[in-house]
Design a protein that fits this description.
With about 270 residues, this protein is mainly β. The protein is built from two helices and 25 strands.
C-alpha cells in the first residue's frame, strides 16, 4: 500500500511565516484503529518528517507510547491487551484479558499504567509478571491517564465530565469539570493540557488549575500533545486531520489525516 493512501501529503499552512520543519521537527507514531479503518490500514505506522509513512507493527492499536530506549507500549482496545515491543518487534511484555484498554503509560517507577474503560478503572501492572499492583476506581468512563513523578495520577474521566488528580493512595487532590475530556497531559511547569472530544476544544490549565487558554478546534478530538518547542499537536479523528496550535492556542496549521487513525504520538529520538 502506498504511503499516500494512509496520509495525504497536501499541507495547508495558515501562517506563511512558519516553515514546515519548524512545526513538524520529529517523526510520529500513528495508531490506526480497526473501528473506522480498512483492514489493510489497521496497525501501528511511523510517519517521517517528510510525510512518508510505513507500518512498523501489525496490530490493532488504540494508543501507543514511544519510550526513550526506543521500545514501544501499545494498547489494543478491541483485543483487550497491552504490548511492549523492542525496536525489532520482539514482544517484551504482554498482558491480555483487559477490559477495553484505551490508554497505556509507563510510570516513573516502571509500573505499566493501563486505563480499562469498560471496568471504569485505572490499574498499575507489574512489568515482569503483569500482576495488578494497584487499582484506582470511582470513575464513570475513563479514557486517559498520566502518572506524575510524585506518584500522583491525572485521569480524564470522560463520561464523568471531569479531569482529576489522585494522590498515591487514590485520594482526590483536585478536579476540573468539562464535557468529555478525552486526553490529559501534565506540562513541565505544573500546568495541564486537555482535549475535549464532544466540543472539539483544547484547554490549557495553569499550575493553579485555572484556564490559561481554550481553543475551539472543531471535529472530534482524540488527543492533544505538547511538542518540545511549545506547540500543541491535536488529533481530530472525525475530521481526519492533525492540527497544530501555537503557544497561545492559536491554530497555525492543519494537515489531512488517515481515516481510523486515533492517536498521534511524537517520536523523540535521544
Amino acid at each position: 500500500m502506498k504511503a499516500a493512501c494512509l496520509l495525504a501529503l497536501a499541507l495547508f499552512i495558515q501562517d506563511p511565516a512558519l516553515e514546515l520543519d519548524e512545526i513538524v521537527a520529529e517523526p510520529a507514531l500513528l495508531s490506526v484503529d480497526t473501528k473506522h479503518a480498512r483492514r489493510a490500514d489497521v496497525g501501528l505506522w511511523r510517519r517521517e518528517t517528510d510525510g512518508k509513512t510505513w507500518r512498523i507493527w501489525e496490530c490493532d492499536p488504540y494508543d501507543s507510547r514511544w519510550l526513550p530506549d526506543r521500545t514501544i507500549l501499545i494498547a489494543e482496545r478491541w483485543k483487550g491487551r497491552v504490548l511492549w515491543i523492542d525496536p525489532k518487534g520482539k514482544v517484551l511484555f504482554e498482558r491480555a484479558g483487559l477490559a477495553e484498554p484505551v490508554d497505556v503509560e509507563l510510570a516513573h517507577d516502571g509500573t505499566v499504567v493501563v486505563v480499562e474503560r469498560r471496568k471504569s478503572r485505572v490499574v498499575g501492572l507489574d512489568p515482569e509478571t503483569g500482576r495488578i499492583v494497584w487499582n484506582r476506581t470511582g470513575f464513570v468512563s475513563p479514557f486517559d491517564a498520566a502518572p506524575l513523578p510524585n506518584g500522583h495520577l491525572l485521569v480524564a474521566d470522560s463520561d464523568g465530565g471531569r479531569v482529576v488528580e489522585l494522590d498515591a493512595r487514590g485520594k482526590l487532590v483536585w478536579q476540573y469539570k468539562m464535557p468529555f475530556p478525552n486526553t490529559v497531559e501534565p506540562l513541565g511547569d505544573g500546568g495541564v493540557l486537555i482535549s475535549n472530544w464532544t466540543r472539539g476544544e483544547v484547554v490549557e490549565l495553569g499550575p493553579d488549575h485555572k484556564v490559561r487558554w481554550k481553543t475551539h478546534v472543531g471535529g472530534t478530538l482524540y488527543s492533544a500533545e505538547r511538542l518540545p518547542e511549545g506547540l500543541t499537536v491535536v488529533c481530530d479523528g472525525g475530521g481526519r486531520r492533525v492540527v497544530f496550535l501555537d503557544e497561545a492556542g492559536k491554530l497555525i496549521k492543519s494537515e489531512p489525516f488517515a481515516p481510523g487513525c486515533v492517536d498521534y504520538e511524537t517520536i523523540l529520538e535521544l
